[in-house]
Task: inverse folding
């Protein structure tokens, strides 16, 4: 693409072309930086980088290993299968990029506190609420775990948070970090064309989104619901809200216990329950 490429340098400073009031910068620490080129250069993320709302620097942890052979993993103490990522290269990488050694549970950069997030199956489950909170940060560091995991001292003394994108195990944290970058970036003001779009997303307000239709009006005999063609905006809004409640009840009823529901919403849910038996 013609815009800025994925920055694979070791420079931890955010792209100077990015406006600090409407942008976010990610420092990603990984053993496989090549995995990030395609996803960061396409679609919304690619456009966000071109327009200066997003900058990403991908840092190879192996470059920060101080031994002759740049070793980044070792067998675990106590035995067992697999390898464990060494603490020293990770600490050196993060502390070098973020300008000065970590202090307690946070690393500092240019006087600002920078979240240092470890991607791990043991982390708290990533959700829309967490994405919203992270979107208010101006700079975030992401550590991609690999193999059997990372040395526990990384979790205890370097990471400020641990995130998992689901109850399953990936080969590494790279794909998980891309999910975090995508989910967080689209919430940064100016990234999406419609500033209200994210408010209607599934999970944004505790419910799943209802169905959508577009042309043609009839496809293989399946028609668009008449209410969407009525021109009655209030009726359309009521229908969409009911469909969101219906879909959430059918697919994720657990979400209804935490969702912000009006009295009318509760009445609709009770009626839907009766209809479904």
Result:
């Amino acid at each position: 693409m013609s815009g800025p490429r994925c920055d694979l340098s070791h420079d931890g400073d955010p792209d100077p072309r990015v406006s600090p009031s409407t942008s976010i910068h990610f420092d990603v620490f990984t053993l496989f930086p090549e995995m990030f080129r395609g996803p960061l250069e396409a679609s919304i993320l690619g456009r966000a980088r071109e327009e200066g709302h997003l900058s990403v620097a991908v840092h190879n942890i192996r470059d920060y290993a101080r031994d002759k052979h740049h070793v980044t993993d070792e067998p675990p103490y106590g035995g067992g299968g697999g390898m464990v990522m060494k603490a020293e290269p990770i600490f050196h990488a993060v502390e070098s990029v973020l300008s000065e050694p970590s202090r307690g549970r946070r690393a500092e950069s240019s006087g600002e506190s920078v979240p240092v997030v470890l991607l791990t199956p043991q982390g708290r489950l990533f959700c829309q609420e967490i994405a919203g909170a992270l979107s208010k940060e101006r700079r975030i560091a992401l550590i991609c775990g690999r193999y059997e995991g990372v040395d526990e001292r990384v979790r205890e003394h370097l990471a400020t948070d641990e995130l998992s994108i689901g109850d399953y195990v990936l080969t590494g944290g790279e794909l998980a970090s891309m999910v975090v970058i995508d989910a967080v970036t689209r919430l940064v003001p100016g990234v999406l064309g419609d500033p209200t779009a994210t408010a209607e997303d599934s999970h944004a307000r505790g419910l799943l989104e209802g169905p959508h239709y577009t042309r043609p009006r009839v496809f293989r005999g399946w028609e668009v619901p008449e209410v969407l063609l009525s021109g009655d905006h209030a009726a359309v809004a009521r229908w969409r809200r009911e469909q969101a409640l219906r879909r959430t009840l059918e697919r994720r009823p657990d979400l209804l216990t935490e969702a912000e529901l009006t009295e009318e919403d509760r009445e609709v849910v009770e009626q839907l329950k009766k209809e479904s038996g």
Notes: The longest strand covers residues 116-125. The chain is about 30% helix and 15% strand. Residues 180 and 189 are 17 Å apart (CA to CA).
